[in-house]
Structure formats: C-alpha cells, structure tokens
Amino acid sequence: MTAAAGVPGDILSRAAEETLQRLCGLTARPAGAGDGPADAAAEVQFWGAMRGKLMAQARGGLGREAALRLFGGRAPASRQQQEALCLLVAAVCGAMLADAAAGRAYLMESPRIVDNIAGYEQLFGRPLAAATLATAAGTLEVRYYANVMPATGIQHEF
Fold first, then answer.
1. CB 37: neighbour CB atoms within 10 A?
2. In whole angstroms, what is the distance from residue 149 CA to residue 125 CA?
C-alpha cells in the first residue's frame, strides 16, 4: 500500500476490503502485486473537496467471481465481469470518499470500462494511494490518482 496526502493507503485498502465483503461476500487481505492477465479493469472520476480518478483491476478470476456473486448465473460473459468491476470501483470510491472527504460533498461520474490500468503511471505519475487485495477468487488492485500532473503541478482534466 502506498500512503499519500488526502487518501492514505489504509483508507483505500479498508474501503476496498469492506466493499468486497459487503457486495460479494469475499474476505480480502492485503497482498503483493497481482499476477496473470487482467479479468477486467474500470475507472471512475470524481470532483469536490477531492478530485481525481480511482482505477480498479481484477486478476486471477476475481472478475468472474464478482459477476457470479453480483448477477447470478453460471458462466458470466466478459462484459458481465467488466460491469461487475464497474460496480465495485464505484462502491470503493464512495466508501473511500466517505472516509477521506469527511462528509464534504463530491460528485462522481458513472464508472467506465478500460482496457487495463498499466499505462496510467506514465500518464499521471505514481498513484497517491494504491492497494492490492487478495481473495480466494483472485486479486483486486485499486489506485487513486489526483488530477495534478506531477512533473508540472498543472491541473489536468481527465
């Protein structure tokens, strides 16, 4: 986990752990970097007392398991796995902001599916906070990026 101003890694990790437990019934614990190809990746942008993006990526079968637990059925399609991750990233973002923004107002756009989150550090620098959580079904990586370009300090509209 990476600590940062505004959103320490423990707040982000706790928000992700609680969301996985509440929505999917999955117990999570902090882990090292996830291995294997991504099942799905999603992001959500938010504004208010805090501004930025929250990214999430599921690996090792977590996308499939989340879709099964959220939507039912037997073999979720790739699109259902992506939609499940969109729900998770929005819920994690809401939980993170409820804790870190201390009751101040914010707006959150609808989450959207992304190909992967691998290139975000090149675009936005290191995340202000990051956490990787392991479950019996796979791993969830979440990253919080502010909308300030690290090299220039200039505000960047995502």
1. 8
2. 7
Q: Buried (b) or exposed (e) across 101-136, using 16+ Cβ within 10 A?
A: beeeebeeeebebbeebeebeeebeebbbbbbbbbe
Tokens 């502010």 sit on residue:
146
d(CA 158, CA 155) in angstroms, rounded, equals 9
CB neighbours of 124 closer than 8 A, spacing ≥ 6?
A: 53, 145, 149, 150, 156
Do 46 and 109 meet the contact criterion of CB atoms below 8 Å apart? yes
Tens place of pLDDT for every residue, the chain, 158 residues? 333 345 677 889 999 999 999 999 999 988 876 666 788 899 999 988 788 999 999 999 999 999 999 999 888 888 999 999 999 999 999 999 888 777 778 899 999 999 877 777 777 778 889 999 999 999 999 999 887 544 445 454 44
Does pTM top 0.90 for this prediction?
A: no
